[in-house]
Amino acid sequence: MDDEQARRDGPQDQRRAIVVGAGITGVAAAIRLRRMGWAVTLIDRAPAGDRGAASFGNGGILARCSIVPVPVPGLLAKAPRMLFDPDQPLYLRWSYVPRMLPFLAKYLSYGSEAQVRRIAAALAGLTGDSVDEHRALAAGSAAAGYIQTGDYGFLYRDRAQYQKDAWGHAIRAEHGFHPYEVDRAGLLERDPALGEAWTFGAIFPDHGWIANPGAYVAALAETFAREGGVIRRAEVEALSGDGRVTLAGGAVMRADRVILAAGAWSARLAAGLGLRLPMESERGYHLALKSPASAPAHPWMVGEVKAVTTPMDFGVRLAGIVEFGGLDAGPSEAPPKLLRKAAARIWPGLEWEAEEEWMGHRPVLADSLPALGAIPGAPAVVAAFGGQHVGLTAGPRIGRLAAEIAAGRTPNADLAPCAPDRFR
Questions:
Q1: What DSSP designation does 332 have?
Q2: Is residue 200 within a helix (H) or strand (E), and if so which, with residue range?
């Protein structure tokens, strides 16, 4: 770091870290390292909580039980039909297909039963205590007020439809997630606007959600700054294995450790360190319903429409959709239309005052697990990215583990499934 930056960061004998990426994982890692006594600089080209980040636009659920990945047995056979059905939540930008075919083949190869069980076990280790991790991270700060706790429901038309999900629920049960059942009357107590078609729910207790994810991450960043951390707005162009960080314009910063937590943009920076990963942006969408006439008491996963619905401080957010189209293309028109159609199916007749559409980038590695750990050949750099659909849920834990690794501590967790070089 330059002399001015060093003076801001603290005493010259204090160990220094740079965290690249101000999403939930990066902010969590920065806070944890700062609380360990490190001088920490958090770098991102946009403010924490910016609407362009996945940490802004996610479904907001602290989905402890979301351990079953998207590729499951049978998906390969269904995928072609899903791609050509406008009512299915899987989209491809056809111009991007040639670039992503190698990734897609590898991604689908992890859909066997054995692989899904292995991945679920690893994800359970990252998501199981997510509510407690968020509470510990936000304790005593304004961010704590955004954390809500309660049930997380899977919504079905009837018991027969629920039983079609038996395989996934069995995997969740193996890791301690056991739902209780509610009938139509029980559903209406939780969500009076539900349409008549919905008659059965599987309710997972002890979950949580964030009432405004963007504001929550911004509040955590403010906490980091109040605790002595430094936030720098800049675009990172390259990393070096010895702790050098090159910014756009050529400025170079230096630290004892660097944590790479730049979400879907992390693979480009990792490639400069010799780590080439099968990683893509799984573009996600949300539709925010502002000031609706009513809102559910807790989040729903609605498998039939492949969307989650979450009560938030501005109304209700519907999120979902999987679109492969890279990092550079703008939003597509079809996904928000599908979410609007889903809202009408879930809550026929519900009115709201305004809508807001959003598209962002989920960082997805081919096996649906994050890259977490020291990068081989780059001793000063720790990877902490790839949270896919559970990025918000697991972000504080992934950030804490990355901070422990950076600080030279041995985490109390089996991180072998998440080793950054596991695809070599």
A1: -
A2: strand 200-210
Q: Report residues of the chain scoring pLDDT below 50.
A: 1-12
Q: Compute the distance between CA of residue 216 and CA of residue 56 in angstroms, rounded to an integer.
A: 9
How close are the terminal C-alpha atoms of the chain, in Å?
Answer: 33
Fold of 67-128+146-209+280-365: D-Amino Acid Oxidase; Chain A, domain 2 (3.30.9)
* Cα separations in angstroms, 334 against 78, 130, 212, 302, 347: 20, 33, 25, 19, 20
Q: Contact, 376 vs 383, CB < 8 A? A: no
Taking alpha carbons only, the member of 194, 198, 206 closest to residue 157 is: 198
Q: Which two tokens stand for residue 43?
A: 């770098």
Q: Virtual CA dihedral for 250, 383, 308, 209, nearest 10 degrees?
A: -100
Which residue ranges does the chain devote to CATH 3.50.50.60?
Answer: 3-54+214-278+368-418
CA distance 189 to 296: 9
319 vs 408: CA distance, rounded Å:
38
Q: Are strands 315-324 and 279-290 parallel, antiparallel or unpaired?
A: antiparallel
What 3-state DSSP class applies to 41? strand
Tokens standing for residue 271: 């490639």
The CATH class that applies to domain 3-54+214-278+368-418 reads: alpha beta
- As given in the structure block, the two tokens for residue 316 are 């209700």
Q: Where in the chain is the domain with CATH 3.30.9.10?
A: 67-128+146-209+280-365
49 phi, psi to nearest 5 deg? 85, 5
The pLDDT value given to residue 325: 87
Q: Pairing state of beta strands 252-254 and 244-247?
A: antiparallel
Distance CA 141, CA 118 (A): 37
With CA atoms as reference, report the closest residue to 262 among 250, 253, 271: 271
Q: What is the pLDDT of residues 64-113, one digit of tens each?
A: 999 999 999 887 676 666 565 666 667 777 788 888 889 988 999 999 99
Q: What is the DSSP letter of 359?
A: E
In order, the DSSP letters of 232-294 are EE--EEEE-TTSEEEETTS-EEE-SEEEE--GGGHHHHHHTTT----EEEEEEEEEEEES-S-
